[in-house]
Design brief:
alpha/beta; 7-stranded mixed β-sheet; 14 helices; 16 strands; globular; binds pyridoxal-5'-phosphate; aminotransferase; pyridoxal phosphate binding; PyrdxlP-dep_Trfase_small; transferase; transaminase activity
């Protein structure tokens, strides 16, 4: 641990109180993704400052994951809290069947950041943004007299949300077990996973078969049955799977050939995580629909957006009962959330955050390269300022590191005061990818500390493992 710190909440600091919080948590909390029998106590966070979290016992941890890939401007951005408060006392709520000032402001800004005219549907979460996009895609085709187009193609290993169509689009079987059958009409194609190429290709023989595969699926399924493709610029939560150059462009080309809409999920990659405003802007593609959440408010309040190119929006302008988008969201575009989002984008512009992110990317990539020689590391991958470190017990046959040993790596990082993520989320590889997505406000020294902790944890666990 970095050390005990005063968290300013005196009563929380006593050992007894800390125990009480854990007991109370155990009594009433239903944690996300955690088995109840977990032997590990949850980390109960009492406060946070910049990139550092303080638990109820006063221990400090550098958050190398920005919460859940979202706290891009760090934990103590007063201007965001002020924007929320000011809006709350000015006008706390109104539904977006009508309108309000901050919703207009953020919609204009998103459209501007995307380049080209867009209309923006606001909601609360990445899941909802994708649900909205998928409904729009299917209805778009129906309104144009192509109601046979309902299928959606996504990728194995992708994550697009926790419910309904967004979960159906998700390509991680362990997330779906027990909840199927889900929304019908969802197909999956193999991911661009160069370390374990699903097409058995090597670096020099790769012909982007993973992109061409979309063409085959659309042809075999019948182009006139396919509504949309949904994909992230790179698969993030599925283990940071970064395609070779030309992949996204090729998928766009194939979508155009078959009259299929391209939905790009920027829930993680958006808002400078990639070094650009949006992840797809690193490539030469224009999506039809872009979804976003998380970093849009730098994690301070829930907000999500589905941005639709005007050519598509215009198809919904009919006056009939079923020609508009019959889609409602009580809290979507909450005024305070919109105010925080508008302020987030303003701060990012004012501070030229892209320049800082690109400097951080460079430093991170140097440290990532060093990791290649560290025990247990099979592959390192990065996109912008996020990274995945795939761990294996045997480099020659790429045996994924056993889940319990993965757990020990994370525990050792935590003991060294650093919280890293663990992803992959699929069989047969398991969650054997360490993930990093630090806030953009980390200092160079803090970034070094994150990598020092990972290196040291890997050496320790490798020694235990022998
Ligand atoms: N899309 C991607 C790429 C995500 O990573 C996530 C969540 O992690 C989602 C969608 C769903 O977002 P939410 O958890 O806000 O519903």
């Amino acid at each position: 641990m970095i050390g005990k710190e005063c968290c300013g909440l005196a009563e929380l600091l006593s050992e007894n109180k800390a125990l009480t919080w854990i007991e109370r948590d155990r009594e009433h909390m239903w944690h996300h993704m955690q088995p109840f029998a977990s032997s590990q106590n949850p980390m109960i966070v009492a406060r946070a400052e910049r990139a550092t979290l303080y638990d109820v016992e006063g221990n400090a941890y550098l958050d190398a994951m920005s919460g859940l890939w979202c706290m891009n401007l760090g934990y103590s951005e007063r201007a965001l809290a002020d924007a929320a408060y000011e809006q709350m006392v000015t006008m706390p709520y109104y539904p977006l069947s009508q309108s309000h000032l901050k919703a207009i402001e953020i919609s204009e800004k998103i459209s501007d950041w995307l380049g080209g005219k867009h209309h923006i549907f606001l909601s609360n979460s990445g899941t909802e943004a994708n649900e909205t996009a998928l409904k729009i895609a299917r209805q778009y085709h129906a309104l144009r007299g192509e109601g046979t187009r309902y299928k959606v193609i996504s990728r194995y290993r992708a994550y697009h949300g926790n419910a309904g169509s967004a979960l159906a689009a998700t390509g991680q079987s362990i997330r779906k077990q027990n909840y199927e059958p889900l929304t019908p009409g969802f197909l999956h194609v193999p991911p661009p996973y160069c370390y374990r190429c699903p097409f058995g290709q090597k670096e020099d023989s790769c012909q982007l078969e993973c992109a061409s595969y979309y063409d085959q699926v659309m042809t075999w399924e019948g182009s006139d049955t396919v509504a949309a493709v949904i994909l992230e610029p790179v698969i993030t939560g599925g283990g940071v799977l970064v395609p070779k150059p030309g992949y996204l462009e090729k998928v766009r080309e194939i979508c155009d050939k078959h009259g299929v809409l391209m939905i790009v999920d920027e829930v993680i990659c958006g808002f400078y995580r990639s070094g650009e405003r949006f992840g797809h802007q690193n490539f030469h593609v224009k999506p039809d629909i872009v979804t976003m959440a998380k970093g849009i408010t730098s994690g301070y309040l829930p907000l999500a957006a589905t941005a639709v190119r005007d050519e598509i929006f215009n198809v919904f302008k009919g006056q009939g009962e079923f020609t508009h988008l019959r889609h409602l969201n009580t809290f979507g575009g909450n005024p305070s959330a919109c105010a925080v989002a508008a302020k987030t984008l303003e701060l990012m512009e004012e501070r030229q955050i892209g320049t800082r992110v690109r400097a951080l990317m460079e430093r991170m990539n140097e440290r990532l390269e060093r990791l290649r020689d560290v025990p247990l590391v099979g592959d390192v991958r990065s996109f912008g300022f996020l990274a995945g470190v795939e761990l294996v017990s045997n480099r020659a046959d790429k045996t994924p590191l056993d889940p319990t040993v993965m757990g020990r790596v994370l525990a050792h990082c935590k003991q060294r005061g650093v919280i890293v993520g663990r992803n992959g989320d699929t069989v047969p590889e398991g969650n054997n990818v360490l993930t990093l997505s630090p806030p953009f406000i980390v200092t160079d020294e803090e970034l070094d500390r994150i990598f020092d902790a990972i290196e040291s944890a890997l050496h320790t666990v490798a020694d235990e493992y022998r």
